[in-house]
From TrEMBL:
The keyword Metal-binding applies. The keyword Repeat does not apply. Residues 177-287 form the Fe2OG dioxygenase domain. Belongs to the iron/ascorbate-dependent oxidoreductase family. GA2OX subfamily. This is gibberellin 2beta-dioxygenase. It catalyses: gibberellin A1 + 2-oxoglutarate + O2 = gibberellin A8 + succinate + CO2. Keywords: Dioxygenase, Iron, Metal-binding, Oxidoreductase. GO terms for molecular function: gibberellin 2-beta-dioxygenase activity; metal ion binding. Pathway: Plant hormone biosynthesis; gibberellin biosynthesis; Hormone biosynthesis. It is an enzyme of class 1 (oxidoreductase).
Length: 339
């Protein structure tokens, strides 16, 4: 867990607290990948919510649990040992500081590149040689399995939108140059906050502030702990019931642009301090740095104009790094609206 210094309680002014908000959302779309109507259900979910849950995904619980066990071991190391795997630049271990422009949260995390083992050297001080190998194998096995889910979802999107070729989206993720990444998040307990409030459930820390994901899609799995919230189109925040055996998928900014705004990049956040620590693992499926992002021609109707300027993933990524979490990053790439 994160060990607080004696004066750390004063830092709560930097890490926002909030009253619990948002009813539990029982309308999360569920996409069963074994059903023949999966593509139709998936597209409708992307249009209405930018978010859905995937079941019958084919990833074994053994693979999922193995990585969670390794993550628990890593985050359970002494703080001095975890710090040796950081600071993130951008890959490596980070603690509380989330973005490059002052965003902070009640979180510690490990960010890894999903297409190589280039992070091994940075992680090695925090593991004995044997434990490092177990950790690396658990990550690679999990990411390999989740990538297959991402490819399948991307092709179902193409099917549902009647896009040709069918791999127009999945090929961006399959590419060896794909700039995808993988993140392990840990939202630890905060006894100090619980001691400050009459009821531990009456107040929460912002674990990860509101934001959209800049990539194409994100695949999230967490332990059976609440805290994840999405923002609906009417601006209401709702809590997503946890489900440790399923995957939750977010539409990212790039997919919103590729679909000319038909799909919605969902704003989401995580509240911590629920009386139980939260572990989450997220695969962010991104294109190659030089991949051009623009509305797919088949999704721009005759007489309709594209809503976004063409940009490369590298350009968008650089722009996103200059913003705060909650900023509307796609706005810089929108075309002026014709009155």
């Amino acid at each position: 867990m994160v060990v607080l210094s004696p004066g750390a309680i004063d830092q709560f002014a930097l890490i926002k607290t909030c009253r619990p908000s948002g009813a539990v959302f029982d309308g999360v779309p569920v996409v069963d990948l074994l059903r023949p109507d999966a593509a139709t259900v998936l597209v409708r979910a992307c249009e209405e919510f930018g978010f859905f849950k995937v079941v019958n995904h084919g990833v074994s619980l053994e693979v999922i649990n193995r990585l969670e066990d390794e993550a628990v071991k890593f985050f359970g190391l002494p703080q001095s040992e975890k710090d040796k795997a950081g600071p993130p630049d951008p890959f490596g271990y980070g603690n509380k500081r989330i973005g490059w422009n002052g965003d902070v949260g009640w979180i510690e995390y490990l960010l890894l590149h999903s297409n190589s083992s280039e992070d091994d050297q940075k992680l090695s001080p925090s593991f004995s040689q044997g434990n490092q190998e177990f950790f690396r194998c658990a990550v690679e096995e999990y990411v390999r399995a989740v990538k297959e889910v991402a490819f399948r979802v991307a092709e179902l999107i193409a099917d549902g939108l009647e896009i040709e070729p069918r791999d127009v989206l999945s090929s961006m993720l399959r590419s060896e140059a794909s700039d995808s990444c993988f993140r392990l998040n840990h939202y630890p307990l905060c006894p100090e906050l619980q001691a400050l409030t009459p009821s531990p459930s009456s107040r929460n820390l912002i674990g990860f502030g509101e934001h959209t994901d800049p990539q194409i899609i994100s695949i999230l799995r967490s332990n059976n702990t609440s805290g994840f919230q999405i923002c609906l189109r009417d601006g209401a925040w709702v809590s997503v019931p946890p489900d440790h055996s399923s995957f939750f998928i977010n539409v990212g900014d790039s997919l919103q642009a590729l679909t000319n705004g038909r799909f919605w990049s969902v704003k989401h956040r995580v509240l911590a301090g629920h009386g139980k620590s939260r572990i989450s693992m997220i695969y962010f499926g991104g294109p190659a740095l030089d991949e051009k992002i623009a509305p797919l021609p088949s999704l721009v109707a005759e007489g309709e104009s594209s809503l976004y300027k063409e940009f490369t993933w590298s350009e968008y990524k650089r722009s996103a790094y200059k913003t705060r979490l909650a900023d509307y990053r796609l706005g810089l790439f929108e075309k002026p609206r014709v009155q």
